[in-house]
Design a protein that fits this description.
This protein is mostly helical and 310 residues long. Helix content is 53%, strand content 0%. The chain has helices spanning 33-37, 72-75, 87-96, 112-118, 124-137, 139-155, 159-171, 176-196, 200-208, 215-225, 230-252, 257-266, 268-279, 291-299.
Length: 310
């Protein structure tokens, strides 16, 4: 596959500058949420960045295992304590990333349906290889980096940076159906979360950005607004995205449920590595190199028999 950056499609909205405020009926904040809104560490990450990444780069991270099975819990004792991510924060995060959260994720395959028809993906091993590639070098990595930028901007109350991230995310999508996939889920997530889990961060996002809303931006803003720190929020987001794609693969190939879980288990390390890369990647440096996956998303638009919307 060749190297290249994804190109945007369609037009995007205009940025408006305003500070906004917490709307009526807001869900009670978590302990520490106010500190997080001002840029201080949130639950689950004692070293959360205190400002937008573009202004204050992340400190160098120590090299070491990326999986708890390889010693991460031992090296980070706080990760296994009740204070790392309190019950209310964990409850909200699990709710939003659950397949039961009604954003319509089950109806999208990100071009995987065409890859199955074309023969690129035909068993558990080829599904794992396809997903590993888009996790490391494709749309999943780009979404992870966008998620980080949006979370940092929302956490420190930088509405201009948040709107700029939302604009880039909307312009950075490589095909019509991928655009539909991320913006339809983003809008659904925004509406449902504002209704059930209101936070001023989402109010400010709506006030400063009136264009199409990408899914990672909406989720990141909600997490930051509710005081859920970047690292656990990012890992949960990536797990949710990949779980949906694995589920699509199980239905399309088809695979047994056990094979699907084996694929998901094999993707644990690539997801952890991509999360680390995304945390250290400036928003202006994101890009992809998965041309076959981008072509799959485009070819799916004219595929004769389809189960999925992308």
């Amino acid at each position: 596959m060749g190297m290249g950056r994804e190109k945007g499609v369609g037009s995007v909205g205009k940025v408006r500058s305003t500070n906004g405020g917490r709307g009526g009926g807001a869900h009670p904040p978590l302990e520490g949420e106010g500190r997080t809104a001002k840029g201080s560490p949130g639950w689950g990450d004692a070293a959360s960045p205190q400002s937008w990444h573009g202004r204050h780069p992340l400190p160098a991270r120590k090299s070491g295992p990326t999986s708890p099975l390889q010693g991460e819990v031992k090296n980070r004792p706080a990760a296994c304590t009740k204070d790392a991510l309190p019950g209310p924060a964990l409850y909200r995060l699990m709710t939003w990333m659950s397949p039961a959260y009604p954003v319509g994720a089950f109806s999208y395959s990100g071009g995987l349906e065409w890859a199955v028809e074309a023969g690129d993906v035909h068993n558990a091993d080829t599904l794992r290889g396809w997903l590993t590639t888009i996790i490391r070098d494709g749309s999943v990595f780009c979404d992870a980096a966008i998620f980080c930028s949006a979370h940092r901007a929302a956490a420190c109350g930088d509405d201009q940076a948040l709107a700029a991230t939302a604009e880039l995310a909307a312009a950075f999508i490589g095909s019509k159906e991928r655009f539909l996939e991320t913006t339809a889920q983003g809008q659904a997530f925004l509406q449902i979360t504002q209704s059930a889990w209101a936070t001023s961060a989402l109010d400010r996002l709506v006030a400063t950005w009136d264009g199409p809303l990408a899914y990672p931006v909406a989720v990141a803003a909600a997490c930051a607004g509710h005081g859920i720190a970047l690292i656990p929020a990012l890992h949960a987001f990536l797990h949710g995205v990949i779980s949906n794609l694995v589920s699509a693969g199980v239905r399309l190939i088809p695979l047994g449920q056990t094979d699907g879980q084996r694929v998901l288990a094999a993707l644990e390390a690539p997801i952890a590595q991509t999360a680390e890369r995304a945390l250290a990647t400036a928003i202006e440096d994101i890009g992809s190199a998965t041309l076959r996956a981008d072509i799959a998303g485009m070819r799916h638009e004219t595929q004769y028999t389809r189960l999925f919307r992308s």
